[in-house]
Each structure stands twice: as structure tokens, then as C-alpha cells.
Structure to design on (470 residues):
């Protein structure tokens, strides 16, 4: 019945299938119990208040539902009090329906320690807030690529970043978590203090408690070069060819790009983000892309924050469409794979928004930094992101069916291309909600299930959103 909004709002959205509360009176009693248990640093909000709306809103409305109340804890002690209230309620039989949303927005502290070169981030922060707060120190962390994304969900699900080609995923750079266990105990989780939880939290989401702070290594950050380039539909083939060549030839860990192929009501266009982690990219590096006629371009030397804000446009959902993400892991972005990618929207051609995003990460440099984690991605496949969106609930079934067909078609194209997917896991932050755990966590599934049982024997956190180790 507890759902940490900042962890789940922006990530595995499709998981949060609406479950309507049938015992709102009991939930109200829990809300009042929580209100009595917390300090003045925290508040409980009910439907109708602005804070409630903020706490229950999702990036896609198909993931939302009306809860009995939204709680904004201001301290880790109050998080503990709320979880104990919820746990108490669970033992009284209020299981498996959502009643209380925990909005982590007040846990927004950030401290930077230049001696250890780490930053400790409250999980109520979004990545753009993090980058803004780190800018004066001229350092950065391995975090999200889009404004508005909460830090908790991205890190706990892995965390691909513009800095990943050099430093790995977010989970590879975490040195500690502050975790409120399902029994309310607050623990500092590090590789030495609690190696099992440290392993589990790196990709295993909120199965073991609620993370309130994350400590990450920092890296020196100066000005970057990059921006957004738009291509009309007639140039998509050229953009795809440039992408395939870039993917095959790029060895520079400071360079990357994302190519979004977007169909709006069936009309195709492409939008490309180029990134180089230095004020000027090497001559010729992006010349294939730059040689294609574009309809607009915003390349410049700029701060990292300015780059993130300026390139987030196509990752947002301004019309608040319903929708879902899906993913395929691809060892090599090749011509037949790309061709399959942009020929699939026929299965859902009326949709207002069907998008495929190619992210040509360099596998080997990521793997070099990999350490034991729940999300063990050492058989590398770069995550391809699918996002299908539609306006009405009546289209939900068709939308989910279409994205599954596209996912299957692209997976088959990768296999037909001779690429081996047998040991490749899918990126949890992009995966469809009903993806089997084995496809995300491979051989780690039994370990993660027993870890979940050890720390949450009564299954309090099975009532939160996300992939669950049951
Ligand atoms: C729950 O509490 C809210 C806010 O106090 C109130 O509007 C609603 O009627 C209550 N629901 C029930 C079933 O008591
Ligand atoms: C609601 O969220 C917006 C955007 O994050 C924020 O600016 C505003 O202060 C929030 N309002 C309340 C009442 O929490
Ligand atoms: C592919 O990229 C490499 C490296 O940037 C470049 O030298 C080569 O000309 C490109 N090939 C094609 C066919 O564009
Ligand atoms: C679906 O959404 C569109 C666009 O908002 C609207 O015109 C249409 O009437 C809706 N259809 C249904 C069945 O609700
Ligand atoms: C809470 O759980 C942890 C881990 O299982 C355990 O070490 C601790 O004693 C428990 N605390 C309470 C108060 O039950």
C-alpha cells in the first residue's frame, strides 16, 4: 500500500497497473495514524490539495490512480515512522491495494565532499536539480539524461548516462545508500557494511526498503559540446546509416549520441542528440550526421545542465498521453536491425506518438568498471528504447499489444542478424512491466528473491511499484 512516488513516477510506469482501493475507510485510518506518527518536518495531504496532486501525478496518466493520501516525509526518521505505520496496517490485512503515496520531494538535500570526491543526494531530487547544485563545484555524477527524472528510480534500476561510456552506469559509481528497511530500521549500506543489500540495491529497486540517500563518486566536469538536430522523414535513412557507422566505429568514451525516430500520427521524423564531454569534439567525429540536411540544429558549447535542459524535448510527454516503454538489448546496431526498427510502427500507425531511440553505448568500456550488482549487464547489449503513447484508456490494450509486437519483431531481427542474445539481459528501467525477472536479472534472480525474503519477510514492499522479487 506504500508507493514511493519519486522512485516510481518516471520509471517502470507500465508496472503500476491501476488497482482500485476497496477499503478507502481503512486507508483513511492509516493516513490518520501516519499523521499522528510523524514530526512537524512532514505532512499528510488528501485529494484536492495541490501537494496531493503533485504527489500522485505521473509522467503518463495510465500509471496514476487516486490514493487515500499523499505523505511528504521531511526526515529519514519520519520515513521510518510511515513505513512502520504502513507495515502495521499490512498486518491488519490491508494488503495489495494502494492507499498511501509517499512523496519524497522534501528529501532534497545534496552534499558534496571534495576529500572523498563523492556527493550524497536525497532521493527526492531530480537529475536537473542535482546538476544545478553540482555545477559550482565543477564536478558531476553519472546520472540521468532528461529533466524531471527522479534520482532514486534511475540509480536503483541501473542508470545509463551521458557519462556511461567513460564511467559505467550509475550503479557502478555508487558508494553507499541510506536505506529504511521494511521494519523501519535506518541502515547505511556500503560494500563493507552490508554487502548483500549493496549488491541488491544496484539494480534491484525498492525491494529491500526505501532508499532516502545515495552517495555517488563525482568526476570533474567542464563545458560540453552538443545539442539537438532535427531531420525530416525523407532523411531518416541517412541518419540511420550515420548511426550504424558511428556505432561501429566510435571508440571515444567522451562521445555519444541518441537517435530518436518518432512517428506522430504516422508521420516520421528523426531527432538526434550529439554529445561530446569537452568544449570541442575532434574534427570529423560527427561529420556523417552533420552532412545530412537538417530542419533545425542547436549545437553549441555549453554547461552540462544547459545541455540536458536543451535536449530533453523529445523525452517529455507534454500532452500527458497514456503509454509505455519497452526495450531490446542489441549487441550491434546494424542496418537490418535499424531497418526493422523503423518499419514496425505499421502495427500501431494511428498512434499520436511512437518512438524508437537508439543509444550506441560502447560496451567494453562500461564492462571494465562493472562490479557485482543485481543488474549484471556484462554480456553487453546497448538498450534500445521504445515508447508508444496514446490518448485514451480505450486504446490501452491495442497500445500494449502493438509495443509487444514491435519488441518481438526487433528482437527477432537482431537474432536473424546473427547476434547472440542468449546471455543478454534487458535494462530494467526501460523494460515492459510484465517482463520476466530472468530477462532482467538472469542468474541473480534466486539470490534476489532470498534477499527480499530476508529483509521483507512479510512483503510490505511488494505493495510498491516496480519489479518484485517473488
Ligand atoms: C477519507 O478522508 C477524506 C479526507 O478527510 C474524506 O474526504 C473521505 O470522505 C474519507 N473517506 C472515507 C471512506 O471515509
Ligand atoms: C508542485 O510541483 C511543482 C513542480 O515540481 C513545484 O514547483 C510546486 O512547488 C509543487 N507544489 C506543491 C504545493 O507541492
Ligand atoms: C564511418 O565513420 C568513420 C569514422 O568517423 C569515417 O572515417 C568513415 O568515412 C565513415 N564511413 C561512412 C561510409 O560514412
Ligand atoms: C480519444 O481521444 C481523442 C483525442 O483526444 C478524442 O478526440 C476521442 O474522442 C477519444 N475517444 C474516446 C473513445 O474517448
Ligand atoms: C530490522 O531488520 C534488520 C535486518 O533484518 C534486523 O537486523 C533488525 O534487528 C530489525 N529491527 C527490528 C527493530 O526488528
Amino acid at each position: 500500500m506504500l508507493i514511493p512516488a519519486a522512485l516510481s513516477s518516471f520509471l517502470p510506469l507500465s508496472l503500476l497497473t491501476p488497482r482500485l482501493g476497496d477499503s478507502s475507510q481503512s486507508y483513511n485510518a492509516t493516513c490518520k495514524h501516519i499523521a499522528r506518527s510523524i514530526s512537524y518536518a512532514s505532512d499528510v495531504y488528501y485529494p484536492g490539495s495541490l501537494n496531493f496532486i503533485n504527489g500522485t501525478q505521473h509522467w503518463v496518466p495510465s500509471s496514476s490512480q487516486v490514493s487515500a493520501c499523499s505523505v511528504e516525509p521531511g526526515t529519514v526518521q519520519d520515513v521510518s515512522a510511515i513505513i512502520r505505520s504502513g507495515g502495521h496496517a499490512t498486518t491488519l490485512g490491508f494488503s495489495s491495494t494502494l492507499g498511501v503515496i509517499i512523496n519524497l520531494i522534501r528529501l532534497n538535500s545534496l552534499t558534496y565532499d571534495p576529500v572523498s570526491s563523492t556527493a550524497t543526494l536525497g532521493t527526492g531530487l531530480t537529475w536537473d536539480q542535482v546538476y544545478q547544485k553540482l555545477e559550482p563545484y565543477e564536478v558531476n555524477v553519472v546520472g540521468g539524461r532528461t529533466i524531471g527524472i527522479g534520482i532514486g528510480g534511475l540509480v536503483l534500476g541501473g542508470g545509463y548516462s551521458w557519462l556511461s561510456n567513460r564511467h559505467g552506469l550509475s550503479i557502478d559509481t555508487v558508494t553507499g545508500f541510506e536505506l529504511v528497511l521494511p521494519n523501519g530500521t535506518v541502515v547505511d549500506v556500503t560494500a563493507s557494511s552490508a554487502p548483500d543489500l549493496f549488491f541488491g540495491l544496484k539494480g534491484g529497486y525498492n525491494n529491500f526498503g526505501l532508499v532516502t540517500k545515495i552517495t555517488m563518486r563525482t568526476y570533474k566536469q567542464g563545458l560540453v559540446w552538443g545539442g539537438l538536430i532535427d531531420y525530416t522523414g525523407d532523411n531518416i535513412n541517412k541518419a540511420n546509416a550515420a548511426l550504424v557507422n558511428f556505432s561501429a566505429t566510435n571508440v571515444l568514451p567522451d562521445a555519444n549520441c541518441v537517435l530518436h525516430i518518432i512517428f506522430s500520427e504516422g508521420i516520421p521524423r528523426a531527432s538526434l542528440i550529439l554529445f561530446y564531454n569537452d568544449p570541442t569534439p575532434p574534427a570529423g567525429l560527427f561529420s556523417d550526421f552533420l552532412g545530412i540536411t537538417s530542419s533545425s540544429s542547436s549545437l553549441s558549447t555549453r554547461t552540462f545542465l544547459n545541455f540536458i535542459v536543451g535536449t530533453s524535448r523529445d523525452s517529455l510527454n507534454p500532452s500527458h498521453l497514456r503509454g509505455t516503454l519497452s526495450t531490446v538489448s542489441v549487441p550491434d546496431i546494424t542496418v537490418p536491425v535499424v531497418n526493422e526498427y523503423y518499419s514496425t510502427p505499421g502495427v500501431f500507425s494511428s498512434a499520436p506518438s511512437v518512438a524508437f531511440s537508439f543509444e550506441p553505448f560502447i560496451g567494453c568500456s562500461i564492462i571494465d568498471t562493472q562490479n557485482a550488482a543485481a543488474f549484471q549487464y556484462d554480456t553487453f547489449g546497448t538498450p534500445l528504447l521504445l515508447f508508444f503513447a496514446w490518448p485514451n484508456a480505450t486504446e490501452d490494450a491495442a497500445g500494449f499489444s502493438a509495443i509487444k509486437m514491435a519488441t518481438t519483431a526487433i528482437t527477432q531481427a537482431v537474432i536473424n542478424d546473427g547476434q547472440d542474445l542468449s546471455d543478454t539481459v534487458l535494462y530494467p528501467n526501460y523494460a515492459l512491466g510484465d517482463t520476466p525477472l530472468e530477462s532482467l536479472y538472469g542468474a541473480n534472480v534466486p539470490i534476489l528473491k532470498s534477499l527480499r525474503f530476508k529483509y521483507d519477510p512479510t512483503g510490505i514492499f511488494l505493495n510498491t511499484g516496480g519489479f518484485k522479487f517473488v
Remarks:
- The chain has 17 helices and 19 strands.
